[in-house]
UniProtKB/TrEMBL annotation:
Pathway participation: Purine metabolism; IMP biosynthesis via de novo pathway; N(1)-(5-phospho-D-ribosyl)glycinamide from 5-phospho-alpha-D-ribose 1-diphosphate: step 2/2
PROSITE patterns, sorted: ATP_GRASP, GARS
Organismal lineage: Bacteria, Bacillati, Bacillota, Clostridia, Lachnospirales
Enzyme class per UniProt: ligase
GO biological process terms, semicolon-separated: 'de novo' IMP biosynthetic process; purine nucleobase biosynthetic process
Organism, as annotated: Blautia fusiformis
GO MF, one annotated term: ATP binding
Protein name: Phosphoribosylamine--glycine ligase
Length: 424
């Protein structure tokens, strides 16, 4: 098989690494890719939103399966474009990717089909949102831009003044662009957050092992929201009881709800869960692998990823038994100092050779490129350093040891990824 991966981040590197292990695959392409993905794939200089060019490339190279890693092209309808050209593609169509593309849609879906989530209201008028906040809201409260905002369109407001500033930021100043045309105001939930990724073929769902992300930029969950500063898998808080509840009230119900709405979902559904005192509730859905969740979940998966993805495309996922190693993995993101606001690019990175032939250690590239024959930084999140261990504590120790193998001038990371493990 020839496979094309669309995207350029750490998630796509983890996907490329998984695809490269498949005996079914002879050749991998990635558009646009990065310096790490280039180890497995031939990178093509085509942007992830250039659907027509990507489809033409897939035809020219006789691609057998295209895997879309990123949210923007999925929500924009890349799958519809590929299918119209008779190309096989893994990911949801535009009318299903709305599950991530519109928080207002997903909240309304959960309310209609009785899927547990936080109480909320949707607003497309900033004045009405402000009136609600001044008269009915209980603080703290959560404001969410309706559309895609690189994982940063969520504000937790402690009081009315913060909430008023948040409405201005999202709906009036348009900090997140058109994503803020509509806003969700949501009850603030407390508890442990857990992420569960799943494969879906339109009717059948197979959940993967659990994971937990760390969204804030600084230690102790301080600082600004980011795309994710690190993850661990599995979550010790995702117990068999939680799994049983979610299988009954969340996972299959979501798949069935999308089918009932005439939006059958094929691809990845990411369930962001909050384990509250009243039981698990859905925080959010994503329509693709999480980043950096993919970097801890995929190294633990025993299945051939191509077999699983083809089963999703063909509606035969019920024939797949997903299996994961009985171990743990931790990923620590190495970022450029100043992320997620302002940071330098183009800084040389050293130490990649330390990962050669080291079983259970991975260096997934997120924001890198080649410049004058060497690999340099090319983004806020630069690398995801993943390590496995028999236990979470061992995996955490291994991952942090491996972060020392890499050096670049403005390297920054959190030092408490997986600290919650010590409290479990």
């Amino acid at each position: 098989m020839k496979v094309l991966i669309v995207g350029s981040g750490g998630r796509e590197h983890a996907i490329a690494w998984s695809v490269a292990k498949s005996p079914k695959v002879d050749k991998i392409y990635c558009a646009p890719g990065n310096a790490g993905i280039a180890e497995y794939a031939e990178c093509a200089d085509i942007g992830a939103m250039e659907f027509e060019k990507l489809a033409a490339f897939a035809k020219e190279k006789e691609i057998d399966l295209t895997i879309v890693g990123m949210d923007d092209p999925l929500v924009g309808g890349i799958v519809d474009v590929f299918e119209a050209e008779g190309l096989r593609v893994f990911g949801p169509r535009k009318n299903a990717a709305i599950l991530e593309g519109s928080k207002a849609f997903s909240k309304d879906l959960m309310k209609k089909y009785d899927i547990p989530t936080a109480a909320y209201e949707n607003f497309d008028d900033p004045e009405k949102a402000l009136e609600y906040l001044r008269t009915e809201a209980k603080f703290p409260i959560v404001l969410k831009a309706d559309g895609l905002a690189l994982g940063k369109g969520v504000l937790i407001c402690q009081d009315l003044a913060e909430a008023e500033a948040g409405v201005k930021e999202i709906m009036e100043d348009k900090k997140f662009g058109n994503a803020g045309n509509t806003m969700v105001i949501e009850e603030f939930m407390t508890g442990r957050e857990v992420s569960v990724l799943s494969f879906v073929d339109g009717k059948t769902i197979r959940t993967m092992t659990s994971a937990q992300d760390h969204k804030r930029a600084k230690d102790g969950d301080q600082g600004l929201n980011t795309g994710g500063m690190g993850t661990f898998s599995p979550s010790p808080f995702y117990t068999p009881e939680v799994d049983e509840f979610c299988k009954k009230y969340v996972y299959q119900k979501t798949v069935d709800a999308m089918a009932a709405e005439g939006r059958p979902f094929k691809g990845i559904i990411f369930f962001g869960l909050m384990l509250t005192a009243d039981g698990p509730k859905v925080l959010e859905y994503n329509a693709r692998f999480g980043d950096p969740e993919a970097q801890v979940v995929l190294p633990r998966m025993e299945n051939d990823i191509i077999e699983v993805m083809e089963a999703c495309v063909d509606g035969k996922l019920d024939q797949i038994d997903l299996k994961f190693e009985d171990n743990a993995a931790v990923c620590v993101v190495l970022a450029s100092d100043g992320y997620p606001v302002k940071y330098e690019k183009g800084i040389p990175i050293h130490g990649f050779e330390n990962f050669k032939d080291k079983d259970g250690y991975y260096c997934f590239h997120a924001g890198t490129k080649f410049k004058d024959g060497e690999i340099v930084t090319n983004g806020g999140r630069v690398l995801g350093i993943t390590a496995k261990g028999e236990t979470l504590k061992e995996a955490r120790k291994n991952a942090y040891a491996a972060t020392e193998w890499i050096s670049f001038a403005n390297k920054y990371m959190r030092h408490d990824i997986g600290k919650a493990i010590d409290e479990a």
